[in-house]
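Throughout our pipeline, every protein is held as a single compact record rather than as scattered files. The record that follows is passed on verbatim for readers who wish to inspect the format:
___
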Amino acid sequence: MTNTRPNWLVVLSPATKTGFDSIINDYMAWVSAGGRMHTIDPFGNDVTIQETDGRIADRLRNAISSVSCVYDNNTALTGLIWKEAQPFFAGSKTAAQTADIIQSKTAIYIAEQT
């Protein structure tokens, strides 16, 4: 047994409850067999996670259920933002200038759509 996490833990974002439960069950079996998962906390400290009693699953379920996500595939608005961001990425505008331009143009666009 190596102490390298399985590949499926690299991206822990299943699209269904069944997928989530499958990943958690695999993780708990892997840790029970001696595996370890290493991560970094918000302060930059190395953390080893080795919980097999379901606490990690409960923590992840709570974290996932507390998130609200709104998805709107507005390609016109996204295109406007990317277009106006290019001078910033090229170094010809500051972040503040870019933010002001994007704020102004998106406000106009949204007003026109309502």
